[in-house]
Design a protein that fits this description.
Elements (H helix, E strand, L loop, with lengths): L1 E4 L17 H13 L1 H10 L12 H9 L3 H23 L4 E5 L2 E9 L2 E5 L8 H14 L3 E5 L5 H10 L3 E3 L3 H10 L9 E3 L4 H10 L4 E2 L7 E6 L5 H12 L6 E6 L2 H17 L3 H9 L2 E4 L3 H11 L3 E5 L15 E4 L5 H6 L25 E8 L6 H14 L2 H8 L4
Parallel strand pairs: 1-11, 4-5, 4-7, 5-6, 7-8, 9-10, 9-12, 10-11, 12-13
Antiparallel strand pairs: 2-3, 3-14
C-alpha cells in the first residue's frame, strides 16, 4: 500500500475506468442476436462453460442443487433474504401514488412494476449467491412478474439463493452471451425489459452496448472501498476491511484516509500479517499493493477527498461519525462507525450491495427496489377548467413555432 500526504495526491487516486465498446463483445452480441441458442452454445464451449444442451435449470435440477447445501448455509441465505426483503419493502412503501388538483385539473402518477427483469450473477473467481439475493429480491418486492437469473458455471449455493429469492427462471449461462440473450431473446429465452447486476469488463461493455434495446442499472467498474479513520479506529478492523475489497479481483482497490502516518503504517503492518495466511492472497496481494493511504491534516481535507473520489463503499471509522454524515455527498453506500463493516452490507444487513463504482456515485445511488418500477404520470384536463391551461399552452406553442401544437390547444377553447 502506497502512503501519501494530502498535498502529494496525484491523478491516480481519482483515476476512472473508461468503458470502451470492446470489439469482441460486439461480435458476440451480434452472433447471439442473429443465431440465438446456437451462438450461446458455441460461446459457452469456447469460454469454458462446457456443452450446454439445456440452458434453463429444471425443477429437478434446482431441488438437487438445494439438497447439496447444508442446513446452516440455507438458513444463512434465508436470513439475508429476509433482511433485504424487509428493507426493500420499506423503500417501496416510502413512495406513494399521487393525485393533485392544479387549476381545476387532475394530475397524478402511478407506481408500475416492470414486466420482466434479467439478473446477471457473476461466477468467475467465486460463486456469488449474495448477488442473486441482491438482484432478485427487490425485483420480487417491486412486483416484477418475470425475474430470470443467469450465471456461468452456476454453483448449487447460487442456485439455492436464486430460488429462495424468488427467481422465476434460472439459467446456466454467463458472460456477454447471457447479456445478449436477455436483451434480444433467443429461440428458448424471452427477452427482458431491464438487465441488472455486476460483472467483469466484458459484461459491463455488453450492458453498455445493449442499452436502449432494454434498460440497465448502471455501468460498474472494479469494486472499491474508501475508509476514513481517526485515532479511535482499530487498525485490525481497517486492514481486514481493505483486504475484503482487494480479494474481489486484481483491479479492485482499497483507499485509506487517516490523520497520521503512524496509523497508516499500523494498518499496513496488520494487512501484511493477514495476507500471510489469507486463502485469497494471490489476488488480494496484487490489489492491495496498488491501493493508497492518504495522510490528511483535517477532517475537512478528508471530506473533500471523499466527495471527489465518490467511492462505491465509504466507511467512517471516526469518533462521533454520525454527526458528520451530512458532510459526505458522494458514495454508493455508507457504513458509519467502527463496527459497521462493509462486509455486512455485502451479505446480510439488508441494504443492497450492487453499487455504483468509478465515480458514478456522483449522480446515481445503488440498486434498489426503485430500479424495478416505473413512475407513470397521468392527467385529466376538464372542460370547465381548460381556459387558463389551453391559453398558456397556445402562447408557448406559438413562441416555439409549433403551430399544430397551438392548433391542438386552440380548438379546445372553442
Amino acid at each position: 500500500m502506497k502512503i501519501y500526504n494530502f498535498d502529494e495526491i496525484n491523478s491516480d487516486f481519482f483515476a476512472k475506468i473508461e468503458f470502451e465498446s470492446i470489439a469482441s463483445v460486439a461480435e458476440i452480441i451480434s452472433a447471439v442476436r442473429s443465431n440465438g441458442d446456437e451462438a450461446i452454445r458455441e460461446y459457452a464451449k469456447k469460454f469454458g462453460d462446457g456443452d450446454l444442451t439445456a440452458f434453463r435449470l429444471t425443477e429437478e435440477e434446482i431441488k438437487d442443487a438445494i439438497s447439496k447445501i447444508d442446513e446452516k448455509t440455507i438458513n444463512t441465505i434465508k436470513f439475508a433474504i429476509k433482511n433485504v426483503k424487509e428493507f426493500a419493502q420499506a423503500q417501496l412503501n416510502s413512495i406513494k401514488e399521487l393525485e393533485v388538483n392544479i387549476n381545476g385539473n387532475t394530475l397524478g402518477h402511478k407506481i408500475v412494476p416492470l414486466e420482466s427483469v434479467g439478473c446477471y450473477i457473476p461466477g468467475g473467481n467465486y460463486p456469488l449467491p449474495s448477488s442473486a439475493i441482491m438482484t432478485v429480491v427487490p425485483a420480487k418486492v417491486a412486483g416484477v412478474k418475470r425475474v430470470i437469473a443467469m450465471s456461468p458455471k452456476i454453483q448449487p449455493v447460487t442456485v439455492a439463493a436464486a430460488y429462495f429469492a424468488g427467481a422465476d427462471e434460472i439459467y446456466r449461462i454467463g458472460g456477454v452471451q447471457a447479456v445478449a440473450a436477455m436483451a434480444y431473446g433467443t429461440q428458448t429465452i424471452q427477452k427482458v425489459n431491464k438487465i441488472v447486476g455486476p460483472g467483469n469488463k466484458f459484461v459491463t461493455s455488453a450492458k453498455k452496448q445493449v442499452f436502449g434495446e432494454c434498460g440497465i442499472d448502471f455501468l460498474a467498474g472494479p469494486s472499491e472501498v474508501l475508509i476514513i479513520a481517526d485515532e479511535t479506529a482499530k487498525p485490525e478492523f481497517v486492514a481486514a476491511d481493505m483486504l475484503a475489497q482487494c480479494e474481489h479481483d486484481k483491479d479492485a482497490r482499497a483507499f485509506l484516509i487517516c490523520f497520521s502516518k503512524e496509523f497508516a503504517k499500523q494498518v499496513d503492518e496488520k494487512a501484511k500479517e493477514y495476507l500471510e495466511s489469507l486463502q485469497t492472497k494471490e489476488i488480494a496481494q496484487i490489489s492491495y499493493d496498488k491501493s493508497f493511504a492518504v495522510i490528511v491534516n483535517s477532517i475537512e481535507e478528508a471530506i473533500e477527498l471523499s466527495n471527489k473520489k465518490a467511492p462505491e463503499h465509504l466507511e467512517l471509522c471516526l469518533d462521533n461519525a454520525e454527526s458528520l454524515i451530512d458532510k459526505f455527498n458522494n458514495y454508493g453506500s455508507l457504513f458509519i462507525g467502527n463496527y459497521s463493516a462493509e462486509v455486512f452490507g455485502d451479505y446480510v444487513s439488508g441494504t443492497n450491495h450492487t453499487l455504483p463504482t468509478n465515480q458514478v456515485a456522483k449522480y446515481s445511488g445503488g440498486l434498489s427496489v426503485f430500479d424495478y418500477i416505473k413512475i407513470q404520470t397521468y392527467q385529466i384536463i376538464r372542460e370547465n377548467a381548460i381556459k387558463q391551461t389551453a391559453e398558456n399552452a397556445s402562447i408557448l406553442a406559438e413562441k416555439e413555432g409549433l403551430f399544430a401544437h397551438k392548433l391542438a390547444a386552440d380548438v379546445r377553447l372553442k
